[in-house]
Structure formats: structure tokens, C-alpha cells
HIG1 hypoxia inducible domain family member 2A
Amino acid sequence: MAQSSPPPFDPSSPPLIEGFIPTPLHREGFRDKFLRKSRENPLVPIGCLSTAGALTYGLICFQKGNTHQSQLMMRARVLAQGFTIAAIMVGVVATAMKAQK
């Protein structure tokens, strides 16, 4: 018996895979993606803003010569960074758990 050769590859159309229905490409802009990710895990932007705020205020205090307040703000910055990392990790775990269900 002679087997027929497979049809040639057509790069203009996606390959046909049994049981798979391709979805149209959706181009998501930076703003849309940022808002979607912020809604999924709102603690990360809060942590980033608190880190930036503590750093900025600490540098202002350092420039004015208030070293005690500047040192406190640098410690607050480290805590805010830790909070942000923890929020990212919680988001990663939550996303992984959602994907398993």
C-alpha cells in the first residue's frame, strides 16, 4: 500500500491540532496589563509605592541633616521591600494554585 505524503506546511495558517481551537491574538497594552495585574494582586503596587515613599522621605531627611529620622526611614524602606517581596510570592502561589484547579 502506498501512503500519501502529508500536505506541505502552510505558514500563513496555524497548524491543525485535533482538539485544539486557536484563539485570536489579543494585544494587551501596558496600561491594560498594569491594571489587570494590579487587580489580581493589589498588595504589590502598594508595597512598591510605600518603598518609594520611604526612600524618598529618608533621602529628604538625610539631605536636611535629620540623620535619626533618615535612619528610621531606611529601616522602613527595608520592611516595605520585604512586604513587597512577600506580596509577590503570595501572588505567584495563588496564581499557581488557580492554574491547578
Notes: The radius of gyration is 25 Å. The CA atoms of residues 11 and 17 lie 15 Å apart. The mean pLDDT is 87. DSSP finds three helices and no strands in the chain.
